[in-house]
Design brief:
Layout lengths: L2 H12 L9 E3 L5 H12 L5 E5 H7 L9 E5 L5 E14 L5 H4 L8 H19 L8 E12 L2
Parallel strand pairs: 1-3
Antiparallel strand pairs: 2-5, 3-4, 4-5
Length: 151
């Protein structure tokens, strides 16, 4: 099923106006196995948040997510699996993230492992988008709820 067909199915199932737009259609991460593992965490209800680099939004000319936005989450190959709705958006320096915050991402058991994985990701992301990673770099921490799942 295409993302557009999935979106139309979601709108009909939820009784939303056909003109309702989604904020994004994406997969997590830039590695296939991890992207699909993170999708599985969303589908199981464990992953209820994600983080991204604030400078990447500027580099892409993209607006920050807003509370109430809907997004389609796909697997690495682009097959849609669910719709999430943003429930909170917090912008904060990377170095100020606590375990109480990052544990909502669902993939790490400690702050140290979260930091290790995200430093690697943001360093790679920085090379792609032309910014420099630092502890002071702002990140966008987005909480969400899964509101629809592929049947």
């Amino acid at each position: 099923m295409t993302a557009d067909a999935f979106w139309q199915e979601f709108l009909a199932a939820k009784g939303l106006d056909a003109s309702t737009k989604h904020y994004d259609c994406f997969h997590f991460c830039n590695e296939e196995k991890l992207a699909n593992d993170l999708l599985a965490l969303v589908l199981s209800g464990v992953k209820v948040a994600t983080s991204s680099a604030f400078p990447a939004y500027a580099a892409e000319g993209a607006a920050l997510p807003q509370v109430g936005n809907y997004s389609i989450v796909t697997d690495f190959a682009g097959k849609p699996f669910c719709v999430i709705q943003t429930t909170a958006v917090t912008v904060m320096p990377f170095g100020e993230v606590t375990y109480e915050i990052c544990k909502r991402e669902g993939e790490d058991k400690t702050l140290d492992t979260w930091r290790e994985g995200h430093i690697k990701f943001f360093t790679q992301d920085a090379q792609e988008y032309g910014y420099e990673f630092s502890e002071a770099m702002p990140i966008v921490f987005e909480d969400f709820a899964m509101v629809y799942q592929l049947k």
